[in-house]
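Below sits our specimen:

——
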Amino acid sequence: MNAQRLQGKIAIVTGAGRGIGYGIGEYFAREGAHVIVAEINRETVYKATEHFSSVGAEALAYPIDIGDTDAVAQMVRDVTARYGRIDILVNNAGLSERVGLLEMTPERWDTLLRVNQRGLFFCLQTVANQMVAQLPESVKQAGKADKSYGKIINISSIAGRRGRADAIHYSVSKSAVITITQGAAMALAAYGINVNAICPSVVPTQLWYQLDEVLAKRDGLQPGEWLKQRIERVPLKRAGTAEQIGAMCAFLASEEGDYITGQTYNVDGGSELN
């Protein structure tokens, strides 16, 4: 690890209380960032914040439902009031569910897209407005920037690369993340704000273990067997880690990623070759 690439940066990481978000938050903390743990789970948000503070700079717990646009606006105001600015946003919070096409209901569709698509977009928009407000007047007037003035990283999924028969709404939401990333990158390029996305594959977390429990039962397998078979289908024959996703986020959030925008990177062991 190239230590302290994010020294003193103010980074909001949504869904950082557990899973991939926790790995990203921890990596950022070790790189020197002040991590705002934007997490809906009130138990994990404080545990994660305590840990991040112990391994790096001060972290801030911020219990929040990312699908609530008013709450997101208040979070941005509160973080700005405390630290004076926002340098990085990692849009990681999301829901996952498997349900067949014929069993889908409007309620299940709306619940998932409220967070994964709508929540992600308006979190991006609200933080982007703050990042623009922070810009030097000379940059705003010039309509171009000589360096990066903010980094936004959206967590998509390889499910966003193609449809899934038993998770159409999830695939739709993650495909939208890629499109949102591209459009936002173009809209914010003149302000020197970089927007990129990452598509993880199998990263064993609580969500994956819950998925294994459901699908192993469906397929008549022993607990853990469905996940094992899924990992075997990864070309590298092993699962990814939350730390590896954190490493990619840290690269994109650092000065090393200043000339990269509008891109979506698969961090997936070769699962999707595009």
In short: The domain at 10-201+241-267 is CATH 3.40.50.720 (Rossmann fold).
